[in-house]
Amino acid sequence: MHDAAQNAGPVDHAGRAARFVANADQTTWHDSVLWRIREKRDAVSEGVQGWERLRDLASQIKEHTLSKLDEYLIEFEKCAAANGVQVHWASDAEAHNRIVYDLLEARDVRRVVKSKSMLTEECGLNPYLEARGLEVVDTDLGERIVQLRGEPPSHLVAPAIHVRREEISVLFHEELGTPAGSSDPQFLAGAMRQDLRARFLAADAAITGVNFAVASTGGLVVVTNEGNANLGAHLAPVHIACMGIEKLIPKPEHLGVFLRLLSRSATGQPLSIYTSHFHRPAPGRELHIVLVDNGRTRHLAREDFRASLKCIRCGACLNTCPVYRRSGGHSYGATPSGPIGAILAPGRDMEKYATLPFASSLCGSCSDVCPVKIDIHAQLYRWRQEAAREGHISRGKRLGMNMAGWITRRPARYRLAGRLARSLLRYAPRRLLYGRWNVWGRARDIPEPPARSFGEWYAAERGKK
Amino acid sequence: MNRKPRHNAPRSAGSGTQEGYPARKAILEAVRRAGVPASPLPSITGVRDLEPGDLISRFMASAEAAAATVQIVETGGVEAAVRERFPEAVSIAATVPAWSFEQVNPGTDVHTMAQLDVLVCPGAFGVAENGAVWLGESAMGSRAAPFLTQHLMLVLDRTAIVPDMHAAYDRLDVAREGYGLFVAGPSKTADIEQALVIGAHGPRSLTVLLT
Amino acid sequence: MKIGLFVPCYIDQFYPQVAVATLELLERLGCDVAYPREQTCCGQPMANAGCAEDAEATHRHTAACFREFDYVVGPSGSCVLHLREHVEQAATVRYYELCQFLVEVLQVDRLHASFSGRVGLHASCHGLRGLRLASSSERREPPFDHVAHLLGMVDGLELVGLRRPDECCGFGGIFAVQEEAVSVRMGADRLDDHLQHGVEVITGADMSCLMHLDGLIRRRDMPLRVLHVAEILNGSAEMSHA
Known about the structure:
A: alpha/beta; 3 domains
């Protein structure tokens, strides 16, 4: 049901955020728990000599790879094929979903286990497969929680960060038959472990995402803490790995750079628990890779925005974002959410996501925390210009900015407007000043206007000099 | 994201592994058309730990911070160390014949592996900065075994520890085996209110035995 | 060296004492300062709202106002950052935020100012991460802080540490209105941090953030007040409106 809500019309970020923040206690919790991850990231990056240099390297390696992406894709395909891996190409979400479905259907697959993949979320793979009668079980604990709730993930790394343990307790009571009222995380996770063990053992196919694909070896790297991607991929006879074409890196040595940054940025761990390198299918098994464009080449052509394709999906920009922490992932109506979502989503569908570039104070924390140095806040600024140019800002705002530009281009107009504004603030009755029109004044007082502007003071006091 | 099924849609964006398949061609052409300016590939300098200190103690500290247990054992004492660590264990297996336990190999039945209390594998080398141990496919018995067992024990030569991930990839011929991984602790999750739970889907504990 | 005093529009209209303090401080440090009276606004409000085109004429006007100076110095990191990034100027003219100018150009090492009270420093984002007035908590670099460095020269001033030393206050120009609910919550959270550390006066290098915080302080009747750093450094903090 949340999925449907996500799809209906333009996303009103401010409205959704206001509803989130109206629950003050939940906001306090959400903010503090994500801030704690940011603090862990700070502490663990402190221990790395040359952290900033690592960020530079990661950024440059991605920049280089994007500049020769065609060559690296061909190299990757060649090496993977030589390893006995089957490579598929999909231009868009529909093609991706159909490729996956055709593979499953041809093998008579009924039960699919899936580990975390933002790409399949982006493509809407689950509903596509479910509509065709397949059972798809998300196996990451957080993903499974949001799947059972019928929601999209609200965070790149912690998909169920918006859900409290009491709600999970009720959910698991209904879905898994855990005793009512049991809300101990260890117990609840244990119940899911048991439930999913059976599903892993019975699965006909496993779908995973991809963190990195190495061009020179044709290998895939998949990173998890839970071990779910591994259980899925190793137990099922067919493993389908779905990846955006921007996941490529040239050589294995580059993994050293990215892996040192990824987990530290994501969760504050020096390395996630399992960093799997898939090069060949196990004997008698199948390994498929689906390379997906779905707007990435279009984005690659946008000079101002292509750097966002460097993203390694660590989620650090979400954790650090003061707006994300106080508005929740669902306020963005996009996967991924947060600052990185706010620069990726408008490239896919501006009409729908035009408010996202405005869901930021442009504080720049995202850009400073980003392990691959994407200029996130500068892109947000540039997307605002695109949004306005394409007519996706309100008439009132457009008119106000026209007016502000008209006033501030001439000193006389500016001075007169300033005098009028100060007089209005000084003499107008408070009820009028703080009427419904005054959004600023809902929770904040307006500055007390002085009798003289600085310009007037200067003219009087220094003008004679 | 509820796209309508379009089974009979033209396969203009279909799959293919060979030249000439439309999606492949279209993607590669679109990449070229994007006109990304050339950008050099940097060499990886200035990030290595020049004074890594005592690698064994750093490795131990990193692994323990990730909730692994590290024990130093004298050569030949692996079996004793395993039994001492898990005295109650009914089903203990190893992936190499060096240790006198049941053997797990690629032919081992999945349900047998799922009943394992303890699996003992030889780790190739460790990484001091994060406590990770590299495990190649040949050291796992079966790919699924290290994930199905309730407890995982990795035996590591204490002289086989490198400072950081750069040194790790220098040492590693990553594509030599069909599958391999770094293991850096017991499986874990924090997906319920960010509360740490050890033993998510994989092993409930990781012990590294340094020989 | 000829210094042009840049006074952002909202300081000109609402906080003239901040501009007076900036002018006096620069003069007391021996600078030759002139205030081009034709200046209006840097254009940032329009540009940040997505309407940079509406700011183009204003940008040109602003550039013309400051054409003849060696340095253009203003008491706002945010507006100065906008000038640097969007207002094209001859290479001989350099835009500076006040504190960065004092530390990096004048290399001030002593001030004649005193202030009594527990002061919390609000690190405004554009000054911090745009102009690099201080090391940001996200980056692993040797710590420095120009504003705190200058406040350290003020007799009697007690600078108080915060739990989150450089989190955004939620002003953000158009953001303060378009995302009113989150903006207000962000401001309230910053104020809590200051209050919990016993701060009496919040200062900073950007009056816009302080205006937002002050609006919340006054509405909630909190035991806090705000002062621009120029007022403290100039020793004119107790002065009321010009």
